[in-house]
Amino acid sequence: MNNTEYDVVIIGGGPGGLSAALYSARARLKTLVVEEKRKTGGQCLTTSELENYPGIIKDSGPALMDKFTEHAKHFGAEFIQGHAQSLTLSENGLQKTVQLKEGRELKAKSVIIATGTRPRVLGIPGEKEFAGRGVSYCATCDADFYTDLDVVVVGSGNTAVEESVFLTRYVNSLTMVVIHDEGHLDADRIAREQAYANEKITFLWNSTVTAIIGDELVEAVEVKNVKTGACSRLATNGVFMFVGTVPKPTGCCR
Ligand SMILES: Cc1cc2nc3c(=O)[nH]c(=O)nc-3n(C[C@H](O)[C@H](O)[C@H](O)COP(=O)(O)OP(=O)(O)OC[C@H]3O[C@@H](n4cnc5c(N)ncnc54)[C@H](O)[C@@H]3O)c2cc1C
Predict the structure, then answer these.
(1) pTM of the model
(2) 142 flagged as catalytic
(3) Cα 145 from chain centroid?
(4) How much is the CA Rg of the chain, to the nearest whole Å?
(5) Which of 92, 164, 168, 170 makes an SS bond possible with 143, Cβ 3.0 to 4.6 Å?
(6) Where are the alpha helices (DSSP H) in 81-145?
């Protein structure tokens, strides 16, 4: 067991944790980042192109994350691989102990939890059952499986719209199920314009998906018009859910 006390232990080595590490280490605080994966970078590791980071016109997610990591290391941040599973406070609350699944304990004056988010689920029938067999939460990860097939996207925010446009590189057709009135997408103008101009995308307005239906794989979704209450069935090979994210629970956060 290593009893080194850190000024700051950061749980999670995604862009949030890496930014915190840079600031903390540069402030000459003894800083440790604990990342459960072999590589730092979090969700950005699954992003092929990042275009909205000031000063970087375009870079791949992994390449940019390498730069974030190097930047934090440059100022002295240390890194270890491990899964933080609980956090305890000393009686006076001043000392924090992070317990790793691997058995090691880390002492710190401050702990920053930067464990990211996970996709929000709708909790509808079929969603859990078909996860990985027609229900997906990541276009970058799964788009290729749907080459020349027909898919449904649930959601209307920036992620839903941008990921839909990305998916059209692969799929035959894509139906966006949007809960709002016609013409209302919660995405920025560039994303909206790209989606409207894309011939593969059609929109089902005032609608939500209430069930995912199939046998071995997804075959259809049940769509409900939220204004009229009318339900209909739409044949599809896959459903991509982009209805937001929620903080990722870890042992430490409870
Ligand atoms: C496909 C895709 C494309 C995207 N494209 C863009 C884009 O173009 N531009 C943009 O700005 N954003 C984009 N994003 C969003 C961006 O990736 C996220 O906003 C960002 O990664 C969030 O950073 P984070 O550090 O908060 O969390 P995460 O990136 O989720 O990092 C959390 C880290 O914590 C680690 N962790 C979790 N629990 C523990 C634990 N108990 N112990 C140790 N480690 C733990 C995880 O392994 C992970 O590495 C995209 C996301 C995806 C999935």
Answers:
(1) 0.78
(2) yes
(3) 19
(4) 22
(5) 170
(6) 139-142
Give the Å distance between the CA of 43 and the centre of ligand 1: 3
Which ligand 1 atom is at minimum distance from the Cα of 19? 25
- 44 part of the active site: no
CATH 3.30.450.150 fits 3-115, yes or no: no
pLDDT digits (tens, 9 = 90+) for 191-218: 999 999 999 999 999 999 999 999 999 9
Number of H helices, E strands in the chain: 5, 16
Q: Are 134 and 126 in contact (CB under 8 A)?
A: no
CATH of 119-245, one of 3.50.50.60, 2.30.29.30, 3.60.15.10, 3.30.70.1350: 3.50.50.60
| Residues 123, 127, 129: CA angle, nearest 5 degrees | 125
pLDDT tens, 107-152? 999 999 999 999 999 999 999 999 999 999 999 889 999 999 999 9
- Backbone angle region of 76, left / alpha / beta, with phi > 0 → left and psi within -120 to 50 → alpha: left
Q: 250 CB less than 6 Å from ligand 1?
A: yes
Choose the catalytic residue: 59, 138, 150, 186: 138
